[in-house]
Write a structure and sequence with these properties.
Blueprint (H helix, E strand, L loop, with lengths): L2 H8 L7 E7 L2 E7 L2 E5 L4 E6 L4 H9 L1 E6 L5 H7 L13 E3 L5 E3 L4 E13 L2 E13 L25
Antiparallel strand pairs: 1-2, 1-5, 3-4, 4-9, 5-8, 6-7, 8-9
The structure holds flavin mononucleotide.
The site of flavin mononucleotide has 22 residues, from strand 2, strand 4, helix 2 and helix 3.
């Protein structure tokens, strides 16, 4: 199997698109993520894959809380905004409210999970953040965005190791 086959077949794995928002004291940030899934019923655990070079990783490691905000197909601008590295005042463009853990929740998301970090696992060039879900809300009905809807927005075609 060639590298192109691997990349294209990986795109067939179904992912949603989320804005994961983190907080440590007064510091807040958020980033777009696709690699997230439920991993336990009891307790309810969800994990997501995060690049340890992201600013959000450091806030999550220190603050230990986050929200996972589900985007609709109409929210491509939000996926792009929070997926763009190096933006100043990144949190100012959209409305937030404080979730139970204190982490910011995106008011206009389809819904969100409010989470406490349990632990990180090593996963190649990323870390898996395993989080306990402590609260959740659905804000409205909408068709959710799929990772495949975003094309190469994350620039991932450049990120695979060349052969
Ligand atoms: C559609 C899309 C999906 C993404 N999925 C992930 C992901 O699952 N994990 C990750 O660490 N970064 C992912 N990214 C990249 C981050 O969103 C991006 O690097 C962001 O700027 C990091 O923000 P920060 O450094 O302010 O924390 C994705 C980006 C896009 C556009």
């Amino acid at each position: 199997m060639s590298k192109v086959d691997i990349e294209e077949t990986l795109k067939l794995i179904t992912h949603g698109v989320y804005v994961i928002a983190v907080k440590n004291g007064e510091l807040e940030n958020a980033f777009t993520a696709a690699w997230a899934m439920q991993v336990s019923f009891n307790p309810v655990l969800i994990c997501f894959s995060i690049n340890p070079e992201h600013y959000s990783y450091h806030l999550l490691e220190a603050g230990k809380v986050c929200t996972i905000n589900v985007l609709s197909k109409q929210q491509m601008d939000i996926a792009q905004h929070f997926g763009t590295p190096g933006l100043k005042d990144k949190m100012d463009c959209y409305e937030w409210r404080a979730a139970t853990t204190g982490a910011p929740a995106l008011t206009d998301a389809v819904g969100f999970l409010d989470c406490k970090l349990s632990h990180f696992c090593d996963a190649g060039d990323h870390k898996l953040a395993v989080c306990e879900v402590v609260d959740a809300a659905i804000n409205r009905k909408a068709e959710v965005m799929l990772y495949s809807d975003t094309g190469d927005m994350d620039g991932s075609s450049e990120l695979y190791d060349s052969e």
